[in-house]
Design goal:
The protein is 15% helix and 11% strand. The chain is built from 6 helices and 8 strands, in the order βααβαββαββαββα. The strands form 4 sheets. It has a two-stranded antiparallel sheet. One of its GO terms (cellular component) is MLL3/4 complex.
């Protein structure tokens, strides 16, 4: 009687085909959001961080986005973290805000950062001194900036990012209810704002061609557009 041969233990090492369909509604980018893009640039002489993988647990990132509060390597597809130039009227923009403790004093620490959606954005106590460098420069993810109200694409890159950061200090996200939200619903009269990671989580319509967002309450207008 022939001895029965055991089934082969060799497994197919090929990854299954990706069945996900790229859709304009989901706001999917042309690059894999889980891999830090290479060679991208925006703004006036931006500097992007060079981290090659996710930060270690309990580590503090060197820089954080002044809109979503995530570090340079994020799981939510915001693309690279970049340093943007200050506006010429940077000192005047500080009027009405609590000034730093004084020259030579360290900036107040921000709250704990993480990739969980519950940690996106900022509490009510965030100040410009926490979001901007003493020189007026700020660090913002490419997509967090590009989708923000008032930010424009110019020949040299994105303009008006610092104004968006100031706006986000007092604007609460409709999804997470935390500050730093600068992406508005484009429906007339709609008061809703979102962080870039929260927009997809809340089911918003996002057009990658026009960088316009419609909240779930105004999907009909998105279809007409």
């Amino acid at each position: 009687m022939d001895e029965q041969k055991p089934p082969s233990e060799e497994k197919d090492t090929e990854a299954p085909a990706d069945g996900a369909v790229t859709s304009e509604e989901m706001g999917s980018a042309e690059e894999d959001p889980l891999k830090p893009p290479e060679g991208a640039s925006a703004g006036s002489e931006p500097e992007s961080t060079d981290r090659k993988g996710p930060p270690q647990a309990n580590s503090t990132p060197a820089h954080r986005c002044a809109l979503c509060n995530c570090g340079d390597w994020s799981l939510h597809g915001q693309r690279e973290l970049q340093r943007f130039e200050p506006a010429p009227d940077w000192p005047e923009r500080l009027a009405g805000y609590e000034p730093p403790e004084g020259p030579g004093q360290p900036r107040p620490e921000l709250e704990v950062v993480g990739n969980d959606l519950a940690q996106i954005g900022f509490s009510n106590q965030v100040t410009p001194a926490q979001l901007f460098e003493p020189t007026g420069h700020c660090w913002v993810h490419r997509w967090c900036a590009a989708w923000s109200a008032g930010v424009e694409q110019e020949a040299a890159g994105l303009a008006g990012v610092d104004r968006a950061v100031f706006s986000g200090i007092s604007q609460k996200c409709e999804h997470c209810q935390r500050m730093g939200a600068t992406i508005p619903c484009r429906a007339d009269g709609c008061p809703r704002f979102y962080h870039f990671p929260c927009a997809a989580a809340s089911g918003c319509f996002q057009s990658m061609k026009t960088l316009r967002l419609f909240c779930p309450e105004h999907m009909a207008e998105a279809m007409q557009m």
